[in-house]
C-alpha cells in the first residue's frame, strides 16, 4: 500500500488541544476552551496560521498505479513470458511470420487485461465529492462564505436545512436540527441532534452532539464549532480504512493463475525434453529449437484469456438485464462461489419506508397490515379485520395526522410523501383506517405549534376544535409524554407495552390530548401537564417480501446470509427474525461487544452469529476479514460511506444504485439498479451459470492443446526425418502457424457459444464450491486426456495416410503432398472439435437434456468455423500464410468421419459416470 502523498499526514490526525475526553462528551464551553476559540469564531489571522499548521480540509489520496505499472501487470504472467520467448526465438531463427503471429497473440491478450484494469473504480477520489465547496463561517465576528477546504479546528460555522456538513462539528446551539447520516451510520431515519453532551463510549450513531462531515442537514438550524478536518474526520478515517482494505483476487483468477503456472512449467520441461530428443535424432540445432517453440505454441491455450474475458462479458450483459451492473469482470464468476452474503439492512433487506404496524390504546392492541408508502391495508384486532374504526383508535390516528409536519401527494397512480419518514408513516396509517388527511386538517386547522426539538423530545400543535375550543395534541417519546399525563394513566402498563413493542424492533411514539380555550396562544407551560394519553403507535422499516424468499433461496443454495447494520440491535434482530436470518434466543452482536473481542474470539463468533448491529465502518471491515480467514468467499452489500471499506475488502462488493452513495458505488464490484436483495440472488445464480460454462469452455479447450502437443511429440519422437537437398529436416504434422490457427480461430469460434448455455437444472440446489477447489478437477483432467488421445491418434493417422497416398514418403521434395497432409491433420482436429462441442454443452448429462436448439449460437459458431476453414483451404492468401492446401470432398469426408468417433466414446464415458453421480452435482465435481 502506498503512503498518501500529503506531507502533513501525522499533523492533521488530531485537532489542536484534543482532550482525553471525546468531543461529544464535553459541554460546549469545554470544547471552545480546548480549541482556544470563542462563540464568535476565529480571526482571519488565527485561521490562516492554523491552516498552515494543520493542512487544508481535504481528504488525502493515494497515487493510483501508473499506466506502465498496469501494463507490466498484464505481461508478468508465466504463459505470456513463454509466448514472448517463443516469438523472439522464432524471429531469430528466421521464422519471422510465425514469430509475428505469436507476438500478435501476446499484444491482444495484454490489451484486453490492460483496458479492463484501467477502467477499475476510483473509490477514494469519490469521497472528496462529499465535502461541500463552501461553508458559512464566523471570522472576526462576521458571518462570511469561505471555501470548505479552508476550514480549520476552532472555526464556528452555521448550518441550515439543505446544507452539507463541511467537517466534523460539535454543536453549540441548535433548533429542530436533524441530519441525514445513513451513509455513515446506516440509520433509516434522520438523526436528531442536540447540544447536550452524551456518554463518552457512545457509538457513532448515538453521538447526538456531533455533526459529521459529508452528512446532509434535513431540517432546523445550528451553530457549531469545527473539531476535526480533512483526514481527522470520520470521512477521513473511512478513507484510511479503504486504503487498508485489500483487493482480493477472485477464485477463478487464482485458479487460472495456478493453472498457468502448471502449464508453463510443464511446457518448459517438455520443450527441453523435446529439444534433447530432436538433437539425439540428428536434428540441426535450429530445427530442434523450432520444434521446442512449436510445442510451446501448441500446448499454450492462447485463446483462453479471450474466451474467459468474453464469457465474463456475456455474463455482465445477462446480469445487467436482471438489474445487476458489474463494474469488474471477474466479479461475475466470484458471485457463483459466494458462501456468505453480508447485507446491509436499510433499503436492501427492508423497503426503506417506515410503516406503522402496531397500535395500542387503553382498550387493547390493534394491528395495521400493508407496508410502505401506500394507503392500502386493514385494521386488525385479534387477527380479524374490523369493519369500522373504533373511536379510541380513530382519536389516536387523528392525533398522528394533526400533530405532523409531513404531507401526502398522489403521484402518477401511486402515493408520494414529503417530510420526515416517521411522520409520513403516521399519515399512511390514518389513510388505511379510512381517515382523510386533507379533510381532517381543513376541519381542524392549526392555530399554533411547538416544533420538535431534540432537547425536549416532543412536538405539540394547537388545532381548532370548535367555535370556542381548541385541542392541544402532543407527540413524542413515550416517557416524555407520560410525564405530562394526568394521574389516571397507568404508567407501568404503558411502559410495559412500550417495552413489548421495542422488543419487536418497533419505533414507538406516544400521543396525548387536552382541551384549551381557542383564543389562548400556545406557551411552553401549556404542555407541562394535564394531558390524556391517547395511545401508542409502533412503526418499523419492514422487510421486502421478495427478500424473505431470496434468503430462503440462499439457504437452499448453501449460502449464509448475515445482516450488518448501524441500526439499533432490537430493530435488527426483529427484522432478522422476519427474514429467517436470526434465530430466536440467540442474541446478535453489537459493535461495542465486537470491539472487545480478540481476532480469535471474533472468528468463532462470526460463524454462529447472523445479526450485527450498531456497527462502525471498522467493525464491518473486521467482520469481513474474519469471515475470509475462515475460507469464506464474502459478498458484502452496502449503500453508505460507512460500507465502503468493507465493500472494497470483500471478495465481491455490492452497492445500491438508487440510494447508494458515489463512494459505495465506486468501491463496489457490482451495483444493483433496483436496490433489491432478490437481485443479488439472481446474480449469484447467474454467476454459477457463468462458472459452469467456463468449466465447459476449459473442458473443450484443453483437449485441443494437449492433443496438439501429443501430435508434435509423437512426430518428433517416432517420425522419420525427411530429406530436402541433402539436409535432414523434421517431419512435422503441422506448422506453428497452423497450430495458432487451431488455437485462436477454431477453438475460440467454437468455445464462445458455450458461454450462452442455459444454467444447469440444480444450479441453486447445490452448495458453493470451496474457494480452493481446482478448476481442473479429476473429472475434467480425465476427460481432457481421453479426448486428446483420440484427437492425436486420428490426426496423425490421417496425416500419415494422406502424405503416403500423395507420394510424399520420406522425400520432402514434394511440398504439395506435405501441405495437403498437414491440411488433412488440421481438418481432422477441427472435426473433432465440432463434434466434441456438442458433448461439452453438458459435461455430465445427455445433450438431449439441454435441447438441441436451446442454444442457437452453437449452430452459428459451427457455421462460422466451416466458412473459415473453407477459406483456410481455398483462399490463396491464407494458403501462403498458413501453408495449407485445397482438399477434395473425399478427403474432407474422411476427416469428418474420423472426428465423429469422439461421439460414441465420450457418450459411453458419460453414461458410466452418470451412474455414480449424485443429483445436482456440479459440472466441475470430481
UniProtKB/TrEMBL annotation:
Origin superkingdom: Bacteria
GO BP terms, alphabetized: intracellular potassium ion homeostasis; intracellular sodium ion homeostasis; potassium ion import across plasma membrane; proton transmembrane transport; sodium ion export across plasma membrane
Entry-linked NCBIfam families: ATPase_P-type (TIGR01494)
Subcellular location as annotated: Endomembrane system
Annotated organism of origin: Corallococcus interemptor
Main location: membrane
PANTHER family noted in UniProt: P-TYPE ATPASE, SODIUM/POTASSIUM-TRANSPORTING ATPASE SUBUNIT ALPHA
Similarity comment text for this entry: Belongs to the cation transport ATPase (P-type) (TC 3.A.3) family. Type IIA subfamily.
UniProt keyword annotation of Magnesium present: yes
SMART domains: Cation_ATPase_N (SM00831)
Membrane topology recorded in Swiss-Prot or TrEMBL: Multi-pass membrane protein
Any one GO molecular function term: ATP hydrolysis activity
Protein name (record): HAD family hydrolase
Membrane-traversing stretches: 70-93, 99-115, 262-283, 289-314, 698-719, 739-758, 779-801, 821-839, 859-877, 892-912
UniProt keyword terms in alphabetical order: ATP-binding, Hydrolase, Magnesium, Membrane, Nucleotide-binding, Phosphoprotein, Translocase, Transmembrane, Transmembrane helix
Ranges for domain Cation-transporting P-type ATPase N-terminal: 22-95
Signal peptide: none
Amino acid at each position: 500500500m502506498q503512503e498518501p502523498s500529503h506531507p502533513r499526514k501525522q499533523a492533521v490526525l488530531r485537532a489542536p488541544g484534543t482532550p482525553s475526553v471525546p468531543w461529544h462528551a464535553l459541554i460546549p464551553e469545554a470544547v471552545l476552551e480546548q480549541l482556544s476559540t470563542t462563540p464568535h469564531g476565529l480571526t482571519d489571522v488565527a485561521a490562516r496560521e492554523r491552516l498552515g499548521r494543520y493542512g487544508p480540509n481535504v481528504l488525502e489520496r493515494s497515487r493510483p498505479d501508473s499506466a506502465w505499472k498496469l501494463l507490466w501487470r498484464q505481461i508478468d504472467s508465466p504463459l505470456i513470458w513463454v509466448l514472448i520467448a517463443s516469438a523472439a526465438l522464432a524471429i531469430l531463427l528466421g521464422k519471422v511470420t510465425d514469430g509475428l503471429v505469436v507476438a500478435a497473440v501476446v499484444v491482444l491478450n495484454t490489451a484486453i487485461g490492460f483496458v479492463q484494469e484501467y477502467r477499475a473504480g476510483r473509490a477514494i477520489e469519490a469521497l472528496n465529492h462529499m465535502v461541500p465547496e463552501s461553508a458559512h463561517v464566523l471570522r472576526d465576528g462576521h458571518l462570511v462564505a469561505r471555501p470548505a477546504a479552508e476550514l480549520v479546528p476552532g472555526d464556528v460555522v452555521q448550518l441550515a436545512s439543505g446544507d452539507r456538513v463541511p467537517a466534523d462539528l460539535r454543536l453549540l446551539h441548535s433548533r429542530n436540527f436533524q441530519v441525514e447520516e445513513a451513509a455513515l451510520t446506516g440509520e433509516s431515519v434522520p438523526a436528531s441532534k442536540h447540544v447536550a453532551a452524551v456518554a463518552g463510549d457512545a457509538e457513532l450513531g448515538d453521538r447526538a452532539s456531533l455533526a459529521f462531515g459529508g452528512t446532509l442537514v434535513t431540517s432546523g438550524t445550528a451553530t457549531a464549532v469545527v473539531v476535526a478536518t480533512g483526514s481527522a474526520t470520520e470521512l477521513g478515517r473511512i478513507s484510511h480504512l479503504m486504503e487498508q482494505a485489500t483487493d482480493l483476487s477472485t477464485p477463478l483468477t487464482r485458479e487460472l493463475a495456478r493453472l498457468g503456472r502448471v502449464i508453463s512449467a510443464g511446457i518448459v520441461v517438455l520443450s527441453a525434453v523435446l529439444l534433447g530428443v530432436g538433437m539425439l535424432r540428428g536434428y540441426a540445432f535450429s530445427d530442434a529449437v523450432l520444434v521446442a517453440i512449436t510445442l510451446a505454441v501448441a500446448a499454450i491455450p492462447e485463446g483462453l484469456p479471450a474466451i474467459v474475458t468474453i464469457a465474463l462479458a456475456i455474463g455482465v450483459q445477462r446480469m445487467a438485464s436482471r438489474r445487476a451492473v458489474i463494474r469488474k469482470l471477474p466479479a461475475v464468476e466470484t458471485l457463483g462461489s459466494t458462501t456468505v452474503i453480508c447485507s446491509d439492512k436499510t433499503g436492501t433487506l427492508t423497503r426503506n419506508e417506515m410503516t406503522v404496524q402496531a397500535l395500542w390504546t387503553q382498550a387493547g392492541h390493534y394491528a395495521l397490515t400493508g407496508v410502505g408508502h401506500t394507503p392500502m391495508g386493514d385494521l386488525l384486532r385479534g387477527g380479524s379485520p374490523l369493519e369500522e374504526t373504533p373511536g379510541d383508535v380513530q382519536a389516536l390516528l387523528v392525533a398522528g395526522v394533526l400533530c405532523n409536519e409531513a404531507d401526502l401527494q398522489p403521484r402518477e397512480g401511486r402515493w408520494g410523501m414529503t417530510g420526515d419518514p416517521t411522520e409520513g408513516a403516521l399519515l399512511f396509517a390514518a389513510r388505511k383506517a379510512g381517515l382523510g388527511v386533507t379533510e381532517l386538517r381543513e376541519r381542524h386547522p392549526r392555530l399554533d405549534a411547538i416544533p420538535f426539538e431534540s432537547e425536549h423530545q416532543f412536538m405539540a400543535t394547537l388545532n381548532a376544535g370548535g367555535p370556542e375550543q381548541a385541542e392541544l395534541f402532543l407527540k413524542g417519546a413515550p416517557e416524555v409524554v407520560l410525564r405530562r399525563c394526568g394521574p389516571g394513566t397507568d404508567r407501568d402498563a404503558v411502559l410495559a407495552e412500550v417495552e413489548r413493542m421495542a422488543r419487536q424492533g418497533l419505533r414507538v411514539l406516544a400521543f396525548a390530548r387536552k382541551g384549551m380555550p381557542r383564543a389562548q396562544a400556545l406557551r411552553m407551560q401549556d404542555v407541562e401537564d394535564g394531558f390524556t394519553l391517547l395511545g401508542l403507535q409502533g412503526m418499523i422499516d419492514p422487510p421486502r417480501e421478495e427478500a424473505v424468499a431470496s434468503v430462503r433461496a440462499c439457504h437452499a443454495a448453501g449460502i449464509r446470509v448475515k445482516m450488518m447494520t448501524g441500526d439499533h440491535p432490537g430493530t435488527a434482530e426483529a427484522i432478522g427474525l422476519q427474514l429467517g436470518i436470526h434465530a430466536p434466543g440467540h442474541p446478535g452482536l453489537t459493535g461495542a461487544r465486537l470491539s472487545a473481542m480478540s481476532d480469535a474470539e471474533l472468528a468463532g463468533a462470526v460463524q454462529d452469529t447472523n445479526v450485527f448491529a450498531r456497527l462502525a465502518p471498522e467493525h464491518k471491515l473486521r467482520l469481513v476479514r474474519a469471515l475470509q480467514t475462515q475460507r469464506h468467499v464474502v459478498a458484502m452489500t452496502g449503500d453508505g460511506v460507512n460500507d465502503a471499506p468493507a465493500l472494497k475488502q470483500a471478495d465481491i462488493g455490492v452497492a445500491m444504485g438508487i440510494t447508494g452513495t458515489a463512494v459505495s458505488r465506486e468501491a463496489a464490484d457490482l451495483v444493483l439498479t433496483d436496490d433489491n436483495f432478490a437481485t443479488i440472488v439472481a446474480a449469484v445464480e447467474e454467476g454459477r451459470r457463468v462458472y459452469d460454462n467456463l468449466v465447459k469452455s476449459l473442458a473443450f479447450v484443453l483437449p485441443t492443446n494437449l492433443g496438439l502437443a501429443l501430435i508434435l511429440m509423437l512426430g518428433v519422437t517416432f517420425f522419420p526425418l525427411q530429406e530436402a537437398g541433402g539436409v535432414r529436416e523434421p517431419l512435422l504434422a503441422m506448422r506453428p502457424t497452423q497450430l495458432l490457427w487451431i488455437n485462436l480461430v477454431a477453438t475460440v469460434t467454437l468455445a464462445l457459444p458455450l458461454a450462452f448455455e442455459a444454467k444447469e437444472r440444480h444450479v441453486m440446489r447445490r452448495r458453493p464450491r470451496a474457494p480452493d477447489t481446482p478448476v481442473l478437477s479429476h473429472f475434467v483432467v480425465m476427460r481432457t486426456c481421453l479426448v486428446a488421445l483420440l484427437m492425436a491418434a486420428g490426426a496423425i493417422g490421417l496425416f500419415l495416410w494422406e502424405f503416403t497416398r500423395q507420394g510424399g514418403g520420406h522425400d520432402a521434395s514434394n511440398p504439395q503432398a506435405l501441405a495437403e497432409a498437414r491440411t488433412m491433420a488440421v481438418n481432422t482436429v477441427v472435426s473433432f472439435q465440432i463434434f466434441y462441442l456438442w458433448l461439452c454443452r453438458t459435461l455430465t448429462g445427455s445433450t438431449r437434456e439441454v435441447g438441441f436448439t436451446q442454444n442457437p449460437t452453437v449452430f452459428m459458431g459451427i457455421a462460422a468455423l466451416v466458412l473459415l476453414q473453407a477459406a483456410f483451404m481455398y483462399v490463396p492468401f491464407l494458403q501462403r500464410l498458413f501453408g495449407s492446401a485445397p482438399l477434395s470432398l473425399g478427403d474432407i469426408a474422411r476427416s469428418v468421419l474420423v472426428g465423429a468417433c469422439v461421439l460414441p466414446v465420450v457418450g459411453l464415458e458419460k453414461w458410466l459416470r452418470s451412474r455414480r453421480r449424485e443429483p445436482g452435482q456440479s459440472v466441475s465435481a470430481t
